[in-house]
Amino acid sequence: MENKFEGACLCQRVKFQVRLVNLKMHVCHCSMCRKSSGGTGFAYLYAQEAPEFRTQDTLSSYNAVGKAERGFCNHCETTIYYHNVLDKGYCISISVLEKLPENDILFNREWYYHDKPGYYSYANKTQKS
Ligand SMILES: [Zn+2]
Ligand SMILES: [Zn+2]
């Protein structure tokens, strides 16, 4: 299996193709990932190489601490990737990837779990609607 997938931001102005290392979904609960994604964690799949962008006129990046570049669409604000400048890898936002084989995705790791605020856990019993 080649693990090559298409991705796009919400407004479709940023489009890319990326080769994933595997289909293991990780979530980072660190304060910067939560702030940047605006959610309860940054859920991603990992790529060793940079995405190949087809359109990227509205792609911007922000580097808060010198080693972590965060790519996003500056029109619709979708988070596209987190790039660790030191290890060269790219964490690709899982929800910008299209046509993922849902049953083959394995959610198996939560980073910075100790930084997670106490008001949520993915194991919470919640009302599903
Ligand atoms: Zn966009
Ligand atoms: Zn993080």
Round the mean pLDDT to the nearest integer and report it.
95
Query: Strand share of the residues?
Result: 35-45%
Instruction: Compute the CA-based radius of gyration.
Output: 15 Å
Query: Structural class given helices, strands, pairing?
Result: mainly beta
CATH topology, which one? Answer: Metal Binding Protein, Guanine Nucleotide Exchange Factor, Chain A
CATH architecture: Beta Complex
Q: What is the rounded distance between the termini?
A: 34 Å
Features:
single chain, binds zinc ion, 129 residues, globular, 5% helix, CENP-V/GFA domain-containing protein, seven-stranded mixed sheet, mainly beta, 1 helix, CENP-V/GFA, three-stranded antiparallel sheet, Metal Binding Protein, Guanine Nucleotide Exchange Factor, Chain A, lyase
Give a written overview of the molecule.
With 129 residues, the chain is mainly beta. It has one domain (4-115): Metal Binding Protein, Guanine Nucleotide Exchange Factor, Chain A, CATH 2.170.150. Helices cover 5% and strands 40% of the residues. It has one helix and ten strands, in the order βββαβββββββ. It has one helix at 31-37, and strands spanning 4-8, 15-19, 24-28, 42-47, 52-55, 59-63, 68-73, 79-84, 90-93, 106-111. The strands form two sheets. Strands 6-7-8-9-4-3-10 form a seven-stranded mixed sheet. Strand 6 (59-63) and strand 7 form a beta hairpin. The longest helix is centred in the first third of the chain and has 7 residues, at 31-37. The protein binds zinc ion (ZN) (2 copies).
In short:
Keywords: Lyase, Metal-binding, Zinc. InterPro entries: CENP-V/GFA (IPR006913), Mss4-like_sf (IPR011057). The protein has 129 residues and is mainly beta.
